[in-house]
Amino acid sequence: MKKGNMRLIISLLVVAALYAGGFLIEHTAGSKSMVVTVLQKGAVYALIAVSMNLLNGFTGLFSLGQAGFMLVGAYAYAILTIPMAKRAAVYQYYDGGWVQFTVGVLPALLVAGLVAALFAALIGMPVLRLKGDYLAIATLGFAEIIRAIVQWDTIGPLTNGSNLLKTYPTLKNIMPGNTVLFTFLVVGVCIGLILLLINSTYGRAFKAIRDDEVAAEAMGINLFRHKQMAFVVSSFFAGIGGALLAMYQGSLQANSFKSAMTYEILLIVVIGGLGSVSGSVMASFLFIACSEWWLRFLDAETMLGNVQVPLLAPGFRMVVFSVVIMVVVLFFRKGIMGTRELWELGNRRQAKGGRKS
Amino acid sequence: MFDTLLPYLLAGISVGGQYAMIAVGYTLVYGILRLINFAHGDIFTAAGFFMIYLTASLPIGLSIPLVIILTVALGFVVERVAYKPLRSAPRMSIMISAIGVSYLLQNLMWYITGGLAKQYPVLPFLSQTIRLGSATTKLVTIITPLLTVGLVVALVMLINHTKIGMAMRAVSVDFETSQLMGIKINSVISVTFVIGSAMAAIGSLLYFTNYTAVTPTVGAMPGLKAFVAAVFGGIGSIPGAMIGALIIGICENLIKAAGLTAFSDAFTFALLIVVLLFRPTGLFGEKTTDKV
Question: With contacts defined as CB-CB under 8 Å, which chain A residues touch B102?
């Protein structure tokens, strides 16, 4: 009991330190610096990656629909929060649109998650009966269908068709100067809730389904109900993640939520380790830092003395990056953390407990 | 009525045939490795770029065989480097590797081309215009279905009547037993990828005659649709893949004719989901049972 209390205090301290760190970095480096961008986008991706990990890593459902649910969440958020005064300008082709009210940021975030979860519940009913790669391709298909429907002209007054949605509250103008803190808070709460779910009886049932579906069913776990639950919860947080991404970007268009986005998140999850929340979080920050910041120099044509450094040209960064990812996928299949969590590393008993990967 | 629909039907058959060329690659690989080769669409795109860069310095007659050879080499290398080391790994790992390869190929093509759309060369023979009843169309519209049927028949013959075909069938039924019977699994799998890539290269020659702008991600959509076609026809079945692709191509264009262009892509996936729910093995697929 005492040991448990100690751990709780330590983890709370670590979280507080992270928040304080984010806060201090933003105030010393300034809102426009690269570090802040990485922290913002990395946190958003962390939430999305963890939500995908809940499905792919913890429940063993290979779903590729994440971009679709992010899209739903992002649109729900943007549609609800565009200020009344600006609606006429945004929906200029659709007479100001159907929605004629505005909601606060936090309720809108919640609704974004709920709408995504609702979509997931509807889609999950037929799709979750499929196995393995059929599930992957069906969810991928659903993401594409959602993207097509959102851009459909007939519901343009709701979604603005294929035009941009903008002028909704973004990270910059919600808590000016404290964008990192805001993102960290929302993402932290969400990831905390996911962790609670994973450590509950439901979470153990998810892992049982991942390790052996037939055995899990024989032990009395209702397969469909638990899969549906994992799917809906994962989509709920993907929806919130999508809304946060919209806030980060400042403007929104359905066309950016392509399957390539899902692939990117899947690769983050794999790098972090399928079945490790802390792995996904670390991998997200690493991924964003590399792609936005540390590897930037590879894109610039550089001169060393009089010689132009070969290969360095726009796009080379992503090539190097994808080669690194392939190396991880091929040779370090467990990723950074495997199925372990950061806070379990020192704990020998749990490591011995023999979790199957 | 018929006169207005005819151009759409023709376009449907043509694009369906082109999907069929890609779908064969998916269905063959899936039949043997149980792997959705997500990189197949990018190999198709790469074939388009090979053609563009080769015709810049070589005559078209020489470029075409070279394109096929290069694409085949690419497919072979991808299999050896990215899939072979994972042969004993869980299936999810191979699929992730396939997604990784797709990501790598797209980024590589973006780097090489600078991200700009490139113009596909005009193939004079395929681009000739001809009149069919009330519709004018390119010769490629007529050639595609003929060539597709011809190649599919040849492929079915190869699989049913040659030694390598027999080996492919054996490997698709049982990996380990066929290994015990002295079949060299790795070379059979390589042959599968070689055939699939060659078909994708030929498909790209036909496809880009109609859609002449090649970008690094241009192959993703036809790739996915071809995969849907393969599932629809019953994955593992080559004639099934062809028929599925033709149906998808025609339906897609009829939807365009109805003025719902935005939904032509969505339709394909809706079809996929309906098929998976009611007939998971597709039109011509064999029934499989799960082993515990």
Answer: 263
Give the SS3 label for residue A91: coil
Fold category of A2-352 in CATH = ABC transporter involved in vitamin B12 uptake, BtuC (1.10.3470)
d(CA A229, CA A114): 13
Judge whether B191 and B203 are in contact, CB under 8 Å.
Answer: no
Among A144, A274, A323, whose Cβ lies nearest the Cβ of B104?
A: A323
Chain A residues touching residue B111 (CB < 8 angstroms): 313-316, 318-319
pLDDT, greater one: A342 or B63:
B63
CB-CB neighbours of B60 under 10 Å: 15
Averaged pLDDT, A213-230: 92
- 0.90 exceeded by pTM: no
Q: Is B273 touching A (CB cutoff 8 A)?
A: yes
Do A129 and B262 count as a contact with CB atoms less than 8 A apart?
no
Contact A260 B106 (CB under 8 A): yes
pLDDT reading at A349 higher than 60: no
Q: Does A329 touch chain B (CB under 8 A)?
A: yes
Q: Which of B107, B224, B266 sits opposite A148 (nearest CB)?
A: B266
pLDDT of A355 strictly over 50: no
Put simply, whether A140 touches B (Cβ < 8 Å) is: yes
pLDDT of residue A354: 41
The pLDDT tens digits for A181-213 are 889 999 999 999 999 999 999 999 999 999 988
Q: Contact B96/A326, CB-based, under 8 Å?
A: no
pLDDT digits (tens, 9 = 90+) for A273-315: 888 999 999 999 999 998 888 877 777 777 777 777 777 777 8
Average pLDDT, chain A: 86
Q: Scanning every residue of chain B, which has its alpha carbon at the shortest distance from the alpha carbon of A161?
A: B262
Can you tell me the mean pLDDT for A93-107?
A: 84
**pLDDT at site B202:** 93
- Please list every residue in chain B whose beta carbon sits closer than 8 Å to the beta carbon of residue A260: 103, 106, 217, 220
Q: Which fold has domain B7-278?
A: ABC transporter involved in vitamin B12 uptake, BtuC (1.10.3470)
Chain B residues inside the 8 Å CB shell of A330: 82, 85-86, 97
Inter-chain CB proximity A267 and B103 less than 8 Å: yes
- For residue A201, the model assigns a pLDDT of 93
More confident residue, A2 or A286: A286
- Range with the lowest mean pLDDT among A159-163, A195-199, B277-281? B277-281
- Report residue A341 as tokens: 């969590």
